[in-house]
Every structure is written in C-alpha cells, then in structure tokens.
Amino acid sequence: MQINLNQNKNLKLFKHISETAEELNQTVYLVGGYVRDLLMKRQISTDIDFVTEQSGISLATSLAAKIAPKSKVSVFKTYGTAMFRYKDLKLEFVGARKESYQENSRNPEIERGSLEDDQKRRDFTVNAMAISLNKDSFGKLIDPLAGEKDLEKKILRTPLEPHKTYKDDPLRMMRAIRFASTLGFTIEEKSLLAIKAEAYRISIVSTERMMTEFNKIMLSPKPSVGLGLMQETGLMNIIIPELTALKGIEEIEGQTHKDNFFHTLEVLDNISENTNNLWLRWAALLHDIGKAPTKKFVEGTGWTFHGHEYLGSKMVNKIFQRLKLPLGNDKKYVQKLVKLSSRPIALITDEASDAALRRLLFDAGKDLEDLFVLCKADITTKNANRQRRYKKNFEYVSKKIKEVEEKDKIRNFQPPISGEEIMQIFGIKPGREIGILKEKVKEAILEGKIHNDPNEAKSFVIKEAKKLSLFPLS
Q1: CA distance 295 to 301
Q2: What 3-state class would DSSP assign to 382?
Q3: CA 323 to CA 223: how far, in whole Å?
Q4: Which residues have CB under 8 Å from 223's CB, separation 6+?
Q5: What is the pTM of this model?
Q6: Which tens digits make up the pLDDT trace of 162-190?
Q7: Residue 29 β-bridge partners
Q8: Which of 154, 291, 362, 466 is least enclosed, having the fewest CB within 10 Å?
C-alpha cells in the first residue's frame, strides 16, 4: 500500500531525511504512533520516530547538522538512539534492533536487527507499522504484522505472544489500557488475559513511568474505560489499592450502600465532560477515598461514612507521596477539594447562615468554582427529577454565595488590619498577641459581627485587646 505524503505538513522534513539517509547509504522509515495517527486521520503528534537498519545516531547527527545546526543532539549509545528538536518537533532516530529481557530486569539486552525485527519488538501491531522514506520506495506502507487491519477493527493486539510482550516491558500493560481509553480500542482477548496473568510484574516498572501512563488515562475522554480495565486486570489493586477498597456493596438488616468505586468512576466521567484540568479530575477520583476506612453500620440509621472527607484529604498526601505525584500546589489543591467536597451540599437549605457561606468562601477561596464543578459531577442519580432538583439547589447556593461575596469580599480575604498596624496602635513588638488579635478579627468577619472594613476592624481590635491587657497609645 502506498501512503501519499505529498500533502503532509512535514513533507519537506521527510525529504531532507530521505536525502541524508541516501548520502549515508542507510535505510530510513517512519514508525510508531505517528504512522498510526496518520492512518487514523487523527491530530498528528509532534513526536516523530524513525528507524534505520544502520546507525540511528549517525543519521540523527548528520541530519541535525544540515537542518538544525543549533540544536543539541541527545545520544543514548546503549540503545543506539539519538534525538533532537527541530522547530516544534521532537525527532528520535533508532537503529533497528532485537531485544531480550531477563525475568526481573527493566533493561533489555540489545543486538542489531532488521526493520521487521524492530517492528516485532514494539508493543502493538497498530504501533508497528512503518512508512518508507527511502528514495526508491518513498511512502510505501510496510506492515508485516497486519496492523492496518487491526486499526480498522480498533483492536489492540501484540506483535508477539502477549505474555512475552508484557514480560519484556510490563509498562505495555498500562499502555494497552491507555490506548483502549484514549483511542476507543478493544484489547484482544488473549492480550487481556495475559495482562491479568502478568499484572504483578508492573511492580518492577518505575513509578514515574507508570504515572505518566496513568495520567494519560485520566485525561482520556472517558477515564472510566481505562480505570475499569485497570480494576478488571488487577493493576489498580497494585497501584492504588485505596480505590479498590471502595469496590463492593455490603448489606446488613436489608440496608445497603452504593458501590463507591463505580460511583467514583461515574463522577470522574461526569467531571471530564466539563474540564481537562488533570488535578480537578484527580480530586474527582479521590473525593470518596476516605469512605472505605470510615464505613460503619449504625443501628436505626444505616450505613455512615462520618468524617470521610477529612480522612480522605489526609490520604491524598500519602497517595501523592507514594505515586511520586507533585507535592506542592497541585497536591494541596486536590486535598482542599476532597476536604470540602461535601460542604456545599450542607448549605442547600433556606436555614444556611451567611456565616456558613462566608466560611465556605474563605476556605475554598479562588477554587470555589472548581469545587462546584466537582459537586455537580457528584450527582450520579439516574432519576431525572432528582437530578434537576439537585442542580437547581446548587444554583440556589451559588446565588446566595454570590450575594454574600459581593457584600463581604471574603473570597480573596486579606486582613483589614495588619500586624504592623496593631503594633503601632499599642506600641508593642512582634508577639503572640498580634496573631491572637488577627485571628479574632478574621472570626468576627466570618461570623458577621463586623464588616470586612479597616475602621470596624480597628475598633474591634482595640476592644478585644483590653482582654489581653493591651491599651492603645493614644
């Protein structure tokens, strides 16, 4: 089959590569995801892989000297690969090779091979197709493993016996699930059974590599597809057992609770329809994580999960540490949303006080809108009337919060009186009294005792300071 590259935006680049390979008396082929996406007419990746049956390093360095002399060529001699950046593209060149792995090793033993050897070592047939860039066969599709047919059928099949493919590189199990989730493909039955059998080997893969794949699943159009497959194959129990613990329904005295694992996947799918924010999606994934350890049956009441939001926010820290996810603002953001995830629901009454609304505003701050996106996604009832009622209730709370915010300016709260001002009023040096007075001012504003106003705050501080035996200088 011939692939017409004449309309491809990278045609000029491909011609340069073809000419350089011919000058070096080398072969060169386009391979991998770029070929797959080209045939699928998907948005083309800016990462492009090339294979030569000679030296990938020689080809890369010679090409870079011609078209990108200022680019640094990164060379990996062990694997015979080299890469450099050209405009907005990352170009990687590899010498065709065979690979073999020891049982407990992440690193393969490598020897030079043919193009077909290189295709067989790849993860799936749909990623093993190649397009020739050689002068005498420019644009020819080379597909000895029938990847094009699998592409048409939307099937993920391994080039070799699946157990061998997954043993060689266990990360391929997660890649299979990622492609199923992002491309809408089905994992071929033998391959799926092999993932279940080899799941335990994922533990030899670095956490960073696993989480790169996991986050791509999280960012897929419908993450429940991938996460459901991770649960089915046993990978989830190895990577995030806290989520697996949410699975299942218990019954005591005829009373049951919902399956919190599948509820979580529903919430994640709901939120994914409205945001591509990875960490907001993580907040949806972990919003009920504290329910397994707090689950309790109470006579006359039924199943309870008291304090699951608070415990869940604590669990977020441990999960992020173990999975080597960012421990700065992204983690704090997820913790905050998990901790506050049930708060808006408690305010859906006419009796909800302005003080309660102010406290939610203060605690959520700039993330209030994201909190409401999460809370709306948490509505998973299939009853249309209930759905409408819940959403109407959230609109009601949003309106009330907007009214309080316009009046009290709590969202981006800044103390109306500073520590320096307090020191000047009373002629004192830094000390615990200043922190006490500032906290009293904040509480008074949140409770509605005073407005968020400098003059009211100053009068309040002078009055409260007397209890600490402090008196203004004048």
Answers
A1: 13
A2: coil
A3: 18
A4: 181, 217, 265, 268, 269, 272, 281, 285
A5: 0.85
A6: 999 998 899 999 999 999 999 999 999 99
A7: 51, 132
A8: 466
